[in-house]
Amino acid sequence: MSLQNEQKNNRIIIGLGSCGIAAGAKSVHQRFSKLLKEKGLDQKYKIDITSCVGMCFAEPLVEVHADNKRTLYGKVDEKIVDRIINEHLLDGKIVLERIIDSSNPGTDSHSFLSRQKKIVLRNCGVINPESIDDYISVGGYKAVEKAFALGPSALIEFIKSSGLRGRGGAGFTTGQKWELTAKALGNEKYVICNADEGDPGAFMDRSTLEGDPHSVIEGMLVAAYAIGANKGYIYCRAEYPLALNRLRIAIKQALGKGFLGKNIKKSGFDFEIKIKEGAGAFVCGEETALIASIEGRRGMPKKRPPYPSENGLFGSPTNINNVETYANVPWILLNGSEAFASVGTEKSKGTKVFALAGKVKRGGLVEVPMGLTIREVVEEIGGGSNTGRPLKAVQMGGPSGGCIPASLFSTRIDYDEVTRTGAIMGSGGLLVMDETTCMVDVAKFFLKFTQLESCGKCTFCRVGTKRMLETIEKITDGRGELSDLTKLEDLAKYIIKGSLCGLGQTAPNPVLTTLKYFREEWVEHIEQKKCRAGVCKPLIKYIIKDNCNGCGACVRVCPSNAITGAKKTIHIINQAACTKCSRCYLKCNFDSIVIE
Amino acid sequence: MSSDISKVTIKIDGQNFQVSRNSTILNAAKECGFKIPTLCHYEKLEPYTSCFVCLVEVKGARGFVPACSSKVSEGMDISVSSEIVKQARKTALELLVSDHAGDCEPPCVATCPAGVKIRDFLSLAANGEYVKSAQKIRENLPFPGSLGRVCPRYCEDKCRRKDVEESVSVCFMKRFVSDEEMKQGGPFLPKPSKETGKKVAIIGAGPAGLTAAYFLRLKGHSVTIFEKHAKAGGMLKWGIPDYRLPPEILDKECESIINLGVEVKYNTTIDKDIFEKIKVDFDVVFIAIGAQKSSDMPLEGETDKGIVSGIDLLERLAKGERPDLGAKVVVVGGGNTAMDAARSSVRLGADVTVLYRRTEKEMPANSFEIAEAKHEGVKFEFLVAPTKVTRSGEMLNFECIRMALGQPDASGRRRPVPVQGSEFIVEATTCITAIGQQVDPSIADGSNLKLTKWGTFIVEPKTYATNVNGIFAAGDCVLGADVAVRAIDAGRKAAYSMDQFLRGEKVIGEPVKFNSATGREGISKDVLKNIASKAAAKMPTEDASQRVKDFREVEIGFSVNEAASEAERCLKCGCVEADTCKLREYCTEYGVDQSHFKGELRSICDDSTHKQVVLESGKCINCGICVRLLEKEGADSLAFIKRGFETRVKPPFDKQMVDGDAVDYREVAEACPTAGIVLRENYGKKGIAVPNEQIKSRQKKTLRY
Question: Considering Cα of B682, then B686, then B691, then B693, what sign does the dihedral take?
Fold first, then answer.
């Protein structure tokens, strides 16, 4: 819903990304269709759709183009639809309570957007993702022409000079990867787009595919031309039905317009793309496992080298990049490698998309120039703590990443700087935590995830992570010993050094970073049998303080009848019956129930 | 750079080698004479890299490098046997065995202090091959007839059959096959090897000394035993009454060992001078003097007359004396010696009461000994201790005090504490004390042999070497008074070390094989439910009213039919690949501790539906050799299923092995590094039951587990 773009027609644009749909955008869409028809406005106003602009905190979003003016509404429901039609469209009076004014400093939307730099997400929330004409109207498929004009080797040099690094997590230089694949010997070559976004809470690639599928296709096409591949695969998880649907539409449209298929734009170059749906194994995001999966085998990683650039899909040289990397490519070609390299830090160029979530005021999809500090992202874009309690850490890089403490919030978004903290840039998960987050529990959560998602091949990963997890469970159950911490660190060392793929090599990171920055919390769990965040159930106790006024609200929500007390007298929790579900704690209006 | 372009120069553990350019580190190291362990690598298949047992360090590389799938390159500096590498491999192996639901050895064998090959001797007994069966026992324990009567039967406690109904009567079976062998003119011992000319002196002809003599003689060494008594047998001879172990049985077994050419110098007490001379005259000295000195009872007013120690009484009985103990005997103590003394006193015509300061639960005596004593009319007073004795005429008056159990002491048993004011009097004509035995270490006087504060000899636990070169010690004189089966085990192990010493080899003791012992945890109760219940054969005994009249043997022994039926109750536990398993080999080599990583263990769900092979999923290590070999054949009978810790190799979907492709599984089974997939024919050969399967041998239905 860009407010910069000139649009003369009268239009109602509704954000129909997965996030918008989840917030109720479909019923908003239906209400508009129905009411416009009823009021006889359906000739004057065209209903259009777009995808996510990143403001998940304000969904559903509706942009109204009327009388050469654009107005963006947030948190729209059916009642607001009625008011927009009656007050705005019919009376010309804007519904002020729900307006989102990004041009006005001090407003949420302004703070959210002003520090962002949109390269990858340039078209998301702006164009209709199901229309190739929309894409073309904003410069789409122009990059291909430029690529054809440059020729493969100059094209690779061009990408190299932009400094683009792979956005999948490891940060390998994209141009160099293309060059290796281009130089590798092989009759058949492949490009693969890794859209197997599996980190819990991450949705950068999904939003990109839902909001601007053509930019990814165009990026793949450029890469394919550079390395001499005629076949491409998009490996996307089946849990992304909307992304898959829009990809299919986009591929069909691109074929129709001659951007895919034989002899593309009379260049003599052929390229076709197939979609391969993943069955939901996290490890298939690892490139060798992903290749095995496309080949119809069980997704299990292989030893590298040989790298896919040399021996990849069906044994042929293969270039694998992720969605975000490909989406950068057309922008770089259109705006120049210098323009791209001018954004970011010395070794990390361009932008990075993050899924900002957790204890922040404004969660959503954000794209920031490299070099911004974590504090700027969390405080300025995210608006800081949404609970009023001080922030404690951010978890970066998902299960492979680590926890960066608030004391290191001045760390810049930069591959190498982030790696130095023990976390990784990863694919872009950014989870914000405050004092109510238990760091031992966080480590347990992520390790449980990687343990369940291990492909089971390597001994250290399959059994080692299980033994680590069991040790952590022992600690959160109150049975821990101090020597367990050394055991964890020791085993972690072997898992990192003795696993084939990134899943195993990074699985201990959440444990190690929390042990590094929040060791006192681990020790507290062991020595004092105490969880300061009040998360680890066996270590906490809910008690009722003297200021209880005996209202009985807690009694009514308790599922195990553990709370007793006569009306208007202080109530008591029977600890033996308490299941520590926290309902009473959340229900009490007088802060009389506390965690001990 | 090397001149030959097909070669590269690499460094392994600091040495330079020229190896083929295309070879992997694994193959290159092998060529150069270095051994790198691997489980998941199979020559005919592409490298797979899953076990991570072949880890090496390569200078400059991040993390460890799997040798099986990493190619050599010019100038590569590889470390294949550094401590760091060894520790990494050990960790990988420890992780693998922490999820290994299988037993290498059957639980009975793993439990037996002497490691007797119980399953195998029972299997021979079931086939009626009694001599071979006794000889099988003698591979570890040269006293099957004696121990078949007096062993405390630790094996039976761990017998898996116990989870069905009752343990197999292993001990009685030991006795049975030995008796049968003797009926045929046995014991039949192997012939000693060629004489080595080395001379061994053994001090003490008890179970430890004779066992060492047996194994050293078999190795061809010359053996001389110095024995202070007039007969051999040690505490088996002097400490166990005839009604439990008839002297002719023990004598026969001792003689059979002595007849291998052992010289025994009876009635020889070793003093300082003789000991010095022995040290000079012999190449090695083995001290096996036992713990034969009775512990004194702290008793106020102790009088000599009327108070005897249990072992003195038993020794007098063994020498044929039948002393008059009077009408009323009290026995103080709760161990096997106390039971022997009590039951012997019954046979001497006394009314017998045992006084024990704890409760029956804490009694160290074997439960079946306690039961037999009760059966013969022995009375018990628990939580009682005598404090003072006075004499009035023929009677001794013991002032006793009642005890209560307090906090556990170092032994884990609750310490008895006196209850003030609870004193009472017990009358007796004789009091027999059996509250413990001690080592008499006077032999060490003037030597620099190191002793503990209890007077036991200090030895290196694996080799039984004392601090003096050429002197070894084992048995009760090292352990303190203990059961014969442990003395026998120590005697055998000491003999192994002494043989190494005599051959001039490094003395490292008997190799101990790694033993996975997690099968019990992995067994589901459902598997055991399918086993047809069959009661254990009951040992026939002399009637209690008759047997108390003299010292005849109480237990009569199994009939051939009873023995056959009992032998067939064995569930034939243990692993069919115990001798060929690579996992076990490496775990032994790397000194793996199976309990280092504790946690969830895979459940056993074996598949014996196929006619050629059996899938023992509890023992699979996920190396995938089977899956990959079958894949080469175009077969998909086996696949990886599930993820994470639950990843398993199984027939895909809900299929079983029988549903798989019709291919020859021989190579697949033979390539399996463990017993994950096993040729069916091997079970029969090894005498081990096929899992999940009703065996029809001898019309009996048994199952493993």
Answer: positive
Per-residue exposure over B81-93, b if at least 16 CB sit within 10 Å of its own CB, e if not: eeeebeebbbbbb
Scan for tokens 């001792």, then name that residue: B254
Closest-CA residue to A34 (of A23, A47, A50) = A47
Chain A residue closest to B87 (CA)?
A494
B653 Cβ under 8 Å from any chain A Cβ:
no
Record the pTM: 0.89
Omega within 30 of 0 (cis) for the link into B386: no
CB distance B640–A505 less than 8 Å?
no
What torsion, rounded to 10 degrees, do the Cα atoms B292, B294, B295, B298 define?
Answer: -170
Give the angle subtended at the CA of A58 by the CAs of A57 and A63, to the nearest 5°.
150
CA distance B423 to B403: 10
CA–CA min distance B620, chain A (Å): 12
Q: Please say whether the dihedral angle defined by the alpha carbons of residues B670, B673, B674 and B677, taken in this order, is positive or negative.
A: negative
| Gap from A471 CA to chain B (nearest CA, Å) | 9
Cα distance between the two ends of chain A: 48
For A66-125, what is each residue's pLDDT tens digit?
888 888 999 999 999 999 999 999 998 888 888 887 777 777 777 888 889 999 999 999
pLDDT digits (tens, 9 = 90+) for A347-386: 999 999 999 999 999 999 999 999 999 999 999 999 999 9
Nearest CB neighbour to B599, from listed A457, A470, A497: A470
Minimal Cβ distance to A452: which of B98, B99, B643: B643
The whole-angstrom distance between residue A411's C-alpha and the CA centroid of its chain comes to 20
Cis peptide bond upstream of B461, omega within 30: no
Strand pairing category for B199-203 and B15-20 = unpaired
Q: What ipTM was reported for this prediction? A: 0.90
Q: Do A494 and B91 touch (CB under 8 A)?
A: yes
- Residue percentage of chain B with pLDDT more than 90: 79
Peptide bond into B241 cis (omega under 30): no
CA atoms within 13 A on the CB side of A586: 6
On whether the CB atoms of residues B689 and B614 are closer than 8 A, the answer is no
Which A positions 260-299 lie with beta carbon below 8 A of chain B? 281, 283, 298
- Express each pLDDT in B182-235 by its tens digit: 999 989 999 999 999 999 999 999 999 999 999 999 999 999 999 999 999 999
Q: Would you call A110 an interface residue with chain B, using a CB distance cutoff of 8 Å?
A: no
A456 → closest Cβ in B52, B66, B647: B647
The DSSP code for B353 is E
Out of B47, B52, B598, name the one closest to residue A460 (CB).
B52
Say whether residue B599 is in contact with chain A using an 8 A CB cutoff.
yes
SS3 A178: helix
Q: How close B690 comes to chain A (CA, Å)?
A: 28
Structure tokens at B11: 């460094």
Q: Which chain A positions have a beta carbon within 8 Å of B73's beta carbon?
A: none
Q: What is the mean pLDDT of residues A161-183?
A: 94
pLDDT class of B697 with cuts at 50, 70, 90:
very low
- At position A244, the amino acid (one-letter code) is L
Based on C-alpha coordinates, what's the Rg of chain A?
Answer: 26
Tell me if B640 and A298 make a contact (CB, 8 A cut-off): yes
Question: Looking at beta carbons, which residues of chain B come within 8 Å of A281?
Answer: 643
Helical packing angle, A174-183 and A213-227, nearest 10°: 40
Q: How far is B658 from chain A (nearest CA, A)?
A: 23
Task: Please state at what angle helix A483-497 crosses helix A509-517, rounded to 10 degrees.
Answer: 140
pLDDT band at B703 (very low <50, low <70, confident <90, very high): very low
Q: What does the block give as tokens for A564?
A: 């007793």
Instruction: List CB contacts (< 8 A) between B96 and chain A.
Output: 459, 463
Q: Which residues of A touch B69 (CB under 8 A)?
A: 303
